[in-house]
Structure formats: C-alpha cells, structure tokens
C-alpha cells in the first residue's frame, strides 16, 4: 500500500493527484459512532460539507424537502434556501449549472434523482466537466463539482430505476467515479469527493439506503480516493467489485469457504482512477480473479479490469479472468432475478475458475 | 323537451315508462340519442397567438353518457390498481391518473384512432382511451403475458400499435421530440392525421421540449403538444420550477391555448380546434389545467408538498366525473340510479378483469432475451459467466 505523508499526499503513485483540504483527515476510529443507515450517513456527510465550507451548495430535483431518498433532509432548514434548493426537471441544465458554479470556486453538489436519468447530462459531464481544466490550460476547472446519483437494482425498479451506468463514465479521463459499499464508507468517501479538486460522479447504491446499517463516526472524516480495500483476506481467488454487489459477493465467498476455497474480496471504491496496485498484488498472491457488477457484461467496467490484469499478470494467472455480471439486455422488469449476478452465479464461477 | 319521449322526466324512481327500445338489454342503457345539446365550458379558453374557440360545445346524450361511463371506468381502474399495488401484486412504479380522466376521454372524442398519441408514464387511462382493455391493463401492471406489452413493460410502458398509441415513456420529456417525429411522418404521408404529444408541467422545463417545438414550428408539423399541468412535478410545485407557469405561452412563436382540463367538453373542443389548426398551420400547445388526486406515484403519499384540504377542495369543486354527472342529471338524460348502476357495473367489470389478469402467467424466462434486437439477427447474449449460459437473441 502506498505511504501517505501528513498532508495526505500519496507518495509514489504518480498520477493520483493530491487531495485538497487534507488537513481535515481525522482518524476514522476516534470519537463516538452511531449506528445509522446509508441515507443517514450521506445526509451527515452533506451536513458536514455545508457546515465546513460556506461556499458549498446542494441542489437537484426535490432536494428541499429531503429528497426522494431522504439524503438531503434538514439541509434546507439548516443552511437556507440560498444554499440548498430545488431545480426544475432538467438534468442537462442541472449539471451544466453545477459546472459553472464550480468554475467560480464553489463546491457544487448536484443530485441526479436516479442514475437512469443522468444521460441528458452526459454531454455536460463528458465534454464540459471532464475537459475544462485540460482545454483551458489549467486556467479554469470545475473541481468543486460532485454529482450524486442513486444507482443499481432495487428489486422492482424496472428499466428506469435500476441502471448501473458507471461504465459510461469510466471511459472519460478528467472525472472520477466513486461508489461506496456501506454507510461508513459512504460518509467518508462522499466528503473526500466533495473536497477533491476534480469533478466526481458519486453513485450511491439505492438498495442499501435503508438496508445497510453500520456504526458511523459522528465527526468529520474522509476516506482516501483511488485506494481499493481488501475487505476479506484469502488465498485461492481474488474477487473484485463495488457498491451493493459486494454484499452478494461476500455471501458467495462464505459459501465457497465451506468448500475449502479461500476467497479474497476487494472493494474498488474508486473506479477511475482505480487502484491497480492493490488488485495486482492480490492477483499475484492468488493467481485467479473474478469481477462482478450489475451492469451488463459487455463493455462493463469489469472488462477494463480484466484487460489490465491480463496485461500485468498474464504469466501468474492460473485461469481466465471471470466476469459475473448483468446480462446483455436492457434492465428487465419481471425478469430481474434472472438478469442479476446472484450469489449462486458467482459461486459457480468461483468453482469453475478454481478448478480450471 | 326533445328527450321526453325517451325518459319519463317526472319519475326518478322505478322506470314505469321505460321505453321498449332500451328495455331489453341487461346493462344500463347508454342512450343512443344523438340529439345535439349545447353546453358552455366552465371557463372561457385563454389563447396565445391564436383566436380561442367558442365556449359553446356541441354534444349529445350518447356522448355524455359515454364520457361518464368511460371516466368512471378509468377512475375505478386506477383505484383498483392502488389496492393491487398495496397488496404487492403490482410492483415497481405505478403512476395513477385519477383526477385527470377528463383529458383522456375529451381528447378521444375529438380525434380518430388514426391520429397518434404519445405520452409519459401516467398512461393507463390514455391507453384505455385508445381502446385498450382492462385485462391488458391489469395483466401488464402485474407483469403477466396477457398484458399489452406482454408483461415486459409494466406500468410505464403501455403501447397499442393498432390504434397508434406510441406509449408509455419513463424518461421525462423524452417523448416529445419523438412525437414530433411521428408528426413529420404523418405530414409526409399526407393522411390528414395529427400527433398529440403529452407531457407534464415538470417536463415543460426540459431542454428537449424546446428543441421539439422549434423543429415542429420550423417544418410546420401537425404536432399538438399537450401540457397536462397538474401543478406538481412530483413534489415540486409549478411556481417553484418554472419562471413562467403559463405553459401555453412557452412556445413563444407557437400558438397556445389554456383549457380547463377537468371539463371533458372543454377538452374535446380544444382538441378539435387544435387538430384543425395543426393540419392547417403547424404546431400548437394545449395547456390542460388539471389535477391528480394521488401522489406522483404509489411511493409518494402526495401530502408532503400539498395539503389534504387542497386535494379535497379540488375533488369537490372540479371533479370531472361529478361535472358530467351533474350535466346528465340537469339535462335529464339519465336518473341518479342509472348512473349509480353504471358505476356498479364498471366496478364489476374491473373486478372481473383483475381476476382474469391474475390467472395469466408470467412471461417465460426465455423471453428475457427476446426483442433486444430485431428478430433473427443472431446476436449472442452471454449469461453471467460467459461460459455456460449463451442465448442467441431471437
């Protein structure tokens, strides 16, 4: 793992970039913690962000009364309508507006109500946000922009309330894509994203908004971006994932353990720029890798991880890289259980890979 | 009175003088009388860059009773859908139209099934207006094979090709440029038909709407853009989302008409006017001042951003079904009992349809892969692990 000096600068990892406001890096473990769910953790992070930076703004559709998932509860009352406000229904306008706000040195925290609706804003994100610093020769930037969107399956979301569009954004140099797996991670990662000097797209797993409950420190803390975390140690196969899918993968790991297969599970956390080193180190240990995500398999981010691993670890690999992902169909309605990369599909793939 | 030979105007109770012509059917008789009646709309039309049509609408007993029946059916259907959703038989998202029925029936009365309609996700009643059946509605809501989209679409994606109903769209505002494309095709084929592209007050702030308006006006397309203004874009009131909530004026160079969307006759008059206008001079915007009793969807209680008094106030003052009921009663076209019988009948129809819909099976698992691409393309879709499950997309 990379060393970090007091200022939070990553040492020895070239392009990762330094983090802004890194003096606020508190020890995650100190202070009191309370058991809360994901939307409350995100809510706390937003409260902290607005409290600590007077030029931070939260806006989006219906955020004023608390938002459809209650992530923005209490913000309008506490910080006023000039800093927390509703926008009309216009994603392209929301993100474009956010870019402008950020370009003036503010922290613009834009909410897209469901990741499925982010596409009208795709042009703004890809062509404006990602390239602003680059094409202005560093005169301008919109680093203060953070776009939050709930993503992922929820059991009955259908075509337009379940999509995982992270792969589209991973293809764009100039922005970061971050996905938390749990409440504690979410609060720390979101604060890091907001304070990061680059535009970030932060996908929140909506399935976990109420379901995931964890001890979350009450103080202001940040978790590092572009650092993957090994959340389960193992020696036979490396599993890589992010967001809600990790809990499914963990169940598969536990089942595989009963068959004597020791699985190492890695949470990527930041998809771009991703922590190749941690994954590589793990694959060198185990010789096998399996990637799982809800998005369709073809062209999903698993493909990028797979290609990179093969590039660096070809001779070490004992089996082809396995990908257990969504099917190559639109996200279905009643067929959701067939579409999803379930625990059993992952388990099958683990066994197939180990017995290759 | 012209109608006195059909009904005994003096006796509201047992129909002692029931006419022979309608006495034989087992259902409540819908009058086949087409004697014209003239009714004034609730409010005059407000126009933008055009001459408003007259407030006097021509109708007849048959039409009024049909309106009543159709709206009662739609109302009952939506309420039944509410119960089914709460019983978890309908899953996913369900956006109910009750309160807005007058638009669906009024529009249909002014156009033909050759005209195209395209709308957003609050489409159950629009689908019914286009000739959809209750079975298709409930089966689709429950994700069954008998549904209009074969169970693969759900609440937001109802379509009916044979009556040119282009659905049923989840992404807000996306259907409007699509509607303009339909209109272009209609103009090109010179078949004297128009397209009604419906959207809500929330969607009125989408950029693509203005792109669509510009295109339709530039090329004189027979497109009628209908803003069903129910005053709330999910949880956001119109005055907090739009600088100018006069949606009928937002077309700027495109003429517009503001209509009381709870008055089915006003809607009919406006749509008739709009169709004539669109065929002659290009696009027009209709703003329907309407209201939804339910929240945005079944996940929204609908009371966090508006008061219960407001909802019940509208229900008392402007309910579309009550308006037609009063009209029918005041013109003596049917008795109160007959209208109640119609409502009972409608309730039974809905219950029967639900029972039949429940019997319809879920789609076959193999259907997960169908219709991704055009048939026979032979594209392979991989299963989860790319080794075992491979299906050639049919």
Automatic annotation (TrEMBL), chain B:
This entry's Enzyme Commission designation comes to: 1.2.4.1
Q: Where is this region: Disordered?
A: 297-316
Quote the InterPro entries the UniProt record gives: DH_E1, PDH_E1_Alpha_Subunit, Pyrv_DH_E1_asu_subgrp-y, THDP-binding
The cofactor(s) it depends on are: thiamine diphosphate
Molecular function as annotated in GO:
pyruvate dehydrogenase (acetyl-transferring) activity
The Gene Ontology biological process annotation of the record reads: pyruvate decarboxylation to acetyl-CoA
What domain of life is recorded for the organism?
Eukaryota
Q: Which UniProt keywords apply?
A: Oxidoreductase, Pyruvate, Thiamine pyrophosphate
Pfam families found in the cross-reference section? E1_dh (PF00676)
Q: Which residues form the Dehydrogenase E1 component domain?
A: 69-365
Reaction(s) the record says it catalyses: N(6)-[(R)-lipoyl]-L-lysyl-[protein] + pyruvate + H(+) = N(6)-[(R)-S(8)-acetyldihydrolipoyl]-L-lysyl-[protein] + CO2
Output the Gene3D superfamilies linked to this UniProt entry.
3.40.50.970
Compositionally biased, Basic and acidic residues: which spans?
306-316
TM ranges are none
Root EC class: oxidoreductase
The record describes its quaternary structure and partners as: Tetramer of 2 alpha and 2 beta subunits.
What this protein is reported to do is described as: The pyruvate dehydrogenase complex catalyzes the overall conversion of pyruvate to acetyl-CoA and CO(2). It contains multiple copies of three enzymatic components: pyruvate dehydrogenase (E1), dihydrolipoamide acetyltransferase (E2) and lipoamide dehydrogenase (E3).
**NCBIfam families the UniProt entry points to:** PDH_E1_alph_y (TIGR03182)
Indicate what this protein is called per its UniProt record.
Pyruvate dehydrogenase E1 component subunit alpha
